Amino acid sequence: MVNRQAKLWLQTALVAVLVALPTACVAQQSNRARELTQSQAVVDAQESNRTFADVQALVNFGPRVAGTPVMEKASAYLIDEYRKAGYVTEVQTFTYPKFQDLGSNLTVDGATLEGKALNGTVPGKLNAPLVAVPNVGRKADFAAVNVKGAVAIVRRGEIRFSEKAKNASAAGAVGLVIVNNQLSDVYGTLGEEVKIPVLALSGQQGNPLIQRVQSVPLNISLNVNAQRRVVTGRNIIAHLEGVTAPKIILGGHYDSVPGSPGANDNASGTAVVLAVARNLSNTPTARQAWFIAFDGEEDGLHGSRAFVNGANSQFLSGLKAMVNFDMVGVNEQLRIGGTSSLTRFAQNLAPQVKTFGSSGGSDHASFANKGVPVMFFYRGQEPNYHTPNDKKVDPKLLNETTQIALNLVKQIVNAN
Question: Quick one: average pLDDT of 389-402?
């Protein structure tokens, strides 16, 4: 009887142990998974903070205008960070004629309104009547008023700045003032040669002036104080030692427009490229990649154009992709444009990303013009674009862009 009871007790105990064992294993695995998830979250947070810190460091230098001493400081910072991540760096210098506004304005009744000379304008100082042109300055709009010997004032929108200027000149105007369709300043480019000085005013300054001149004749003094000078740009190129024929280039411009600290445009893209480089530094993918911070983008893609013009055809033909990052720190929706085969590839890997047509506007265009497949990461326009208020980005968006880019870059490099 005692032996039978002992046997039954032993069987019960063994069953209990066997039932308990899987639960304990699952618990241990669950704890380990939780620890790994928490550890990865800490790593992601640290990486996000580091990328955000890179943006802040660039912003703290002030407006990063090509050809200024600030760019030497910004380039030195990037060189140092890439070297810390294990990369060798080189500085590719190039020169180009740069348009410079030395302080342009309009004076009416003794009051001076500060404006912006549009890139490409001829300089000029003149006194003349001011005439408001209806609508946006098409030929028919100029035909409705007499601007001969006058400075025409017209609203921004619908047609190019250069077309407004050519219509004004053809109608006999001696100068043109373009008023922004927003309250902020205009930073723009004519894109082609015009014969009269062209000044842009913010909507805040220009709208009251248009309303006033429509009811009261006004004479103004126009001062478009602009020049062209030769500047030296600095592209920062980083790669692992011995990598001379990469399969992929990741790039973004690190210059900004005058007066803007350029947090989103484009410290954000510059910092994301650096973040991807840090993440890849100890992987085989890094031996297939170059990372470039382009200068002179805001003056007309000069840095990327200098790079592709200096590269031999064999180097360019060996590239599977050039991936460009511009304005990726503001706006929730990440968008990818570029070569259709690459955008389709991207959307298959990251369905949350929207694709859009993009043939120009940023440094990828210089590579596309040479036949290199391109991909453009971009989050769209935002209110602080090209203004002194471009000081903030969202660290979460920087991290999201970095993670999606990392996955895509690895897949592109390893694709057959």
Answer: 97
In this prediction, residue 377 carries a pLDDT of 97
Write down the pLDDT at residue 187. Answer: 73
Question: What does pTM read for this prediction?
Answer: 0.74
CA distances from 99 to 230, 231, 265, 300, 407 (A): 9, 10, 20, 11, 40
pLDDT, tens digit, 9 for 90 and up, residues 225-236: 999 899 999 999
**Torsions phi, psi for 100 (to 5 deg):** -140, 130
Distance CA 311, CA 349 (A): 31
| Token code pair at residue 411 | 């897949």
**Cα–Cα distance, 356 to 340 (Å, whole number):** 9
Answer whether the bond into residue 266 is a cis peptide, omega within 30°: yes
How is the beta sheet containing 289-294 ordered, strand by strand?
A: 88-101, 226-239, 289-294, 248-253, 321-325, 374-378, 335-338, 354-355
Q: Is 393 in contact with 264 (CB distance < 8 Å)?
A: yes
In which element (H, E) is residue 125 found? strand 124-132
Q: Which two tokens stand for residue 408?
A: 């895509």
Task: List pLDDT tens digits, range 327-378.
Answer: 999 999 999 999 999 999 999 999 999 998 876 789 999 999 999 999 999 9
Q: Hey, which residues does 108 pair with through a beta bridge? A: 111, 220
Round to whole Å and give the CA distance between 64 and 75: 10
**Separation between Cα atoms, residue 338 and residue 285, nearest integer Å:** 22
Share of the chain above pLDDT 90, in %: 76
Beta bridge partners of 176: 152, 198
- Considering only CA atoms, give the Rg of the chain: 29
Cβ atoms within 10 Å of 264's Cβ, excluding its own: 29
Q: Taking the chain, what is the end-to-end CA distance rounded to the nearest angstrom?
A: 75
pLDDT class of 23 with cuts at 50, 70, 90: very low
Q: How confident is the model at residue 30 (pLDDT cuts 50, 70, 90)?
A: low
Q: Is 98 left (phi over 0), alpha (psi -120 to 50) or beta?
A: beta
